[in-house]
């Protein structure tokens, strides 16, 4: 499994690729059920061309549970590799 870098995450945010970021974070820290739900939400977003507000809230709540862990992971790699990861 490859960890998304902080730079990739920020670039995705700038490009409104929030679903990709959600899947990247949940793929590392989430449960199988959460991964499946994020994939389902992303597929619905792709098929409909928009994201339903309730799906966005579900996605955000799942990602927010793990975002701090993601930041700690980035910080850990930054410290180990002298920011070469980003």
Q: Could you give the distance between the termini? A: 17 Å
- List low-confidence stretches: none
Q: Please tell me how large the radius of gyration is.
A: 13 Å
Number of helices: 4
N-to-C order of helices and strands? HHHH
Number of domains: 1
Helix-and-strand structural type:
mainly alpha
The average pLDDT score comes to 92
Number of strands: 0
Described by strand count, sense and barrel closure, the largest sheet is:
none
Helix content: over 70%
Query: How much β-strand is present in the residues?
Result: under 5%
Overall form:
globular
Summarize the SSE layout with pairings.
Blueprint: H1 6-14, H2 18-29, H3 32-48, H4 53-81
Helix pairs in contact: 2-3, 2-4, 3-4
Describe the structure.
The chain is an all-alpha fold and 86 residues long. The chain has one domain (6-80). It is built from 4 helices and no strands. It has helices spanning 6-14, 18-29, 32-48, 53-81. α2 packs antiparallel against α3 (32-48) and α2 packs across α4. The radius of gyration is 13 Å and the shape is globular. The chain starts with 5 loop residues before the first helix and ends in a 5-residue tail after the last helix.
């Amino acid at each position: 499994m490859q960890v998304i870098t902080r730079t990739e995450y920020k670039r995705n945010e700038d490009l409104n690729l929030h679903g990709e970021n959600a899947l990247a974070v949940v793929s590392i820290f989430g449960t199988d059920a959460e991964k499946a739900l994020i994939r389902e939400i992303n597929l619905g977003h792709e098929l409909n061309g928009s994201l339903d507000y309730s799906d966005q809230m579900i996605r955000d709540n799942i990602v927010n549970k793990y975002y701090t862990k993601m930041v700690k992971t980035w910080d850990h790699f930054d410290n180990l590799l002298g920011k070469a990861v980003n």
